[in-house]
Amino acid sequence: MEKFFGFDLGDAESAVSLLKKDSKEPPKVLQIAGAESLITAYARLKDRSLVIGENACYHPDATVRKIRFKSRFLTDPEVDEDVKAFAAGVLGELIGSGSLIQNEDACFYIGCPAGWNGNDRERYRRIFARLGYPPLKIISESRAALVAACRSKHLQIGYDILQKPVLVVDVGSSTTDFAFVKGGKEVELKTAGEVRLGGGLMDRMILEEALAASPDEKKLRQIFVESEPWESYCEFAARRLKEKYFANESYWKENDCTQTVRITYDRPRKLTLRMNQEIAQRVLSEKNPIVGGNSFEGAFKESLREIRKAVTEGEEGPELVFLTGGVSKMRQIGEWCLEAFPDSIVITSNEPEFSVSRGLAWCGEVDEEVRGFREEIDALKDSSIVERIVGEHIEDLFTEAVDTLTEPILEKAVLPVIERWRDGEIEKLSEIDKELEKEIESWLHTQEARALLAKPVSTWLKPIAYELEEHTVPICMRHKIPYRALNLSSYLSEGEMEIQVEAKDVFAVEEITWMIDMIISVVIGLLCGGSGIALISNGLPGVLAGMVVSLLVLLIGKRPMEKAILNAKVPKKMRKLLTKGYLRRRVLAVSGDVKAAFYEHLKKEKNEEIAERMTRDISLQIDDCLVKMAQVVEIPLH
Under DSSP, is residue 356 helix (H, G, I), strand (E, B) or coil? Predict the structure, then answer.
């Protein structure tokens, strides 16, 4: 695509931004019908021509006027025709100005509230498609604002924030839209209690203040009843005055903040809109039936409390609260958000009224980049690169696993078996090997064993991550994506490990048998001396054992004697003479020999089939991890 258009069709105002391919500048906000921030209004004139924007509000030849219709999209099917008419007017303006050339390589990204479901979005998309718009996608307005924040040089928060919990607060003219994004996944949140809570509420109150102070109040109210466009136009003027006042409250404490609106209906009339500290306080704190008898401040804070409860119940709250929409310029909005989320960073862009349209245009560029990016990630997955890198290091994993698990195995599995023999639960020394096999295998499948492996596995993955970055970093650079998006090393802390190699995975059936056999042979050999003599040949029992052994050697020879001892039922009293402390020392003393035997076995008889399977399984886990990390970049478009 050569051009990416972002169309933010709002209930009160709309904006269209254009981003050209390979442009180093941010998306440009286009002038539509003479304004960058276009009033969402259209009018049909007597000659059936269409007028949009501010001119539609008071054109003398208008036979039909419509304004602020998007807020009724979910409740009034007839609004489709209003959206269609306004969108047709915008398309005509773009073509007429030369910003859009028919059949050129362009696409549109059009915003919608985060709470709209798939059916609502498809119904909305079809309206634009039937008008002949270029290929288009419907994107959440909150998500588009977040994309704008990620791309903005002014904010410099980067795509890393998509891995963190973020609350986007879009303060519109009719509603406040909350979107919670965590780990790149959006949780849809409705405005608390379905309350109509937007900047338009304050605009209406400012207008009411002006009407009450006007000598033409009665006539102006009659005009508003007869002409909805004039009423909406005056509300729009009140909105501009409100934004002007709250953008610099300290200045307007000493100066008069007013705006005069000229109304040409039956005859020209003037309405003076005014903002000062007293009016501002009433606008924020005075109770209003529109929000259930609450004030704007009270309703907004109540919404934040409900949102906080919804997003923090049993989990961490947002690290970032991002404010967008023209009303977000108000100092009070940021203060209320910080009060609700004291541990969060609260930010807004320098032109929040254009955040959505710019973010939508950026979504087009991101979509283009992601398409090529995804193809290269798939190619990397399908190649043998990951498997080769893992295969070169697989023996190190076995070694580190043995170093980590040998002592715990001896203490948690071997020692309890020996103690059971001491306590008489196991009758013969010859039965120990079977019990050891069961206990070691069982322990290797525990959460404790898995936890012990976390650190060595993370350490083992580090060099693999570094080698893999030789292939992932160039991919990121080619597609203008921060290289950390595929930086496996950043995922290897114990708390955030995406790749988990459990003990039962490192030592699956074949490996468990291999390691168990080795441990049993070493333990039996060193503890029992091959015949059980070493186990009972120290201290007082050793005297009796020595006499018995000497006698048996003379009578039946050494080999039959060893078999006889292993199958002998040593009296419990004699076993009790072996203290638990003594047995513990004997068991733990052989850990070095167990490790040495493993290393020797690995050199001489390493199982290629096992190593290949482990390499394949771990490579697949790394592939899955790369896909998850890549999806963080793709998230803004879904």
Answer: helix
